[in-house]
Amino acid sequence: MLYSPKWSKAKKHLKSFICDSLQSRIDFQVINYRRAHDQLGRAVITVDKIEKLSMCTITAEREEFRRTWDKRIEMEDFDFDDVEMNRSLQDQSHEQLKKDGIYGQYDFFDALEKYFNAPIKDSLKSTDILIKILCLLDRRVGKRTLLKMKETILTEHVLVQDFYKLRCEAENILVAV
């Protein structure tokens, strides 16, 4: 599944939300592997041309399969004909991957759609790590909001904490994370 609308258009839209202090430092790339059966590859967020988050479909799907298999072993249930059970195990594994910060390219596109279509206040309350990261880079999130987040940031995933620290440093806000 390739991203629709065109990635170039979505990237331009996404870059328009980046705060001024990080505009020249943040970039988003989508790398598709033409010879992959589904033509998906990975999405990358870079800071100063260094990959900070790589969302590789192959890695995510391999890890999802491994975790699903581990659950089957734990449950001693190898009934592959039970479609509902298969789907449930796969969904559980996928949700756990997202909580652990392991994403496929399709997760990035899904987060983008939610981010583009929700008010920034709602996106800031999201439990999705990717949406939180996009919010931290967003020009609509001001210094007061960043300062308010200081109290709860330590409860967030380490990736969110890293992007929070990056944004605060770019805005000259002193924080101890």
Explain this structure.
By secondary structure, the protein is mainly α. It has one domain. Helix content is about 50%, strand content about 10%. The chain contains eight helices and three strands; from the N terminus they run H-E-E-E-H-H-H-H-H-H-H. It has a three-stranded antiparallel β-sheet with strand order 1-2-3. A hairpin with a 2-residue loop joins strand 2 and strand 3 (about 50-55). Helix 2 packs across helix 3 (about 85-100) and helix 6 runs parallel beside helix 8. The protein is globular. The model has no long low-confidence stretch (mean pLDDT about 90).
Helical run tally: 8
Give me the Rg, rounded.
18 Å
| DSSP summary, beta strand count | 3
Nearest-integer average pLDDT = 90
The dominant shape is globular
Strand order of the largest sheet: 1-2-3
Please summarize the sheet with the most strands: 3 strands, antiparallel
Uncertain segments are: none
How large is the share of residues in beta strands?
Answer: 5-15%
Tell me the structural class: mainly alpha
Order of helices and strands: HEEEHHHHHHH
Give the domain tally.
1
State the share of residues found in helices, binned by percent.
40-55%
> Cα distance, first to last residue?
38 Å
Pfam family, one: SF0329
InterPro entries: SF0329-like
What descriptors fit this protein?
single chain, 177 residues, mainly alpha, three-stranded antiparallel sheet, 3 strands, 52% helix, globular
Gist of the model:
The protein has 177 residues and is mainly alpha-helical. 52% of the residues lie in helices and 11% in strands. The protein has one domain (1-141).
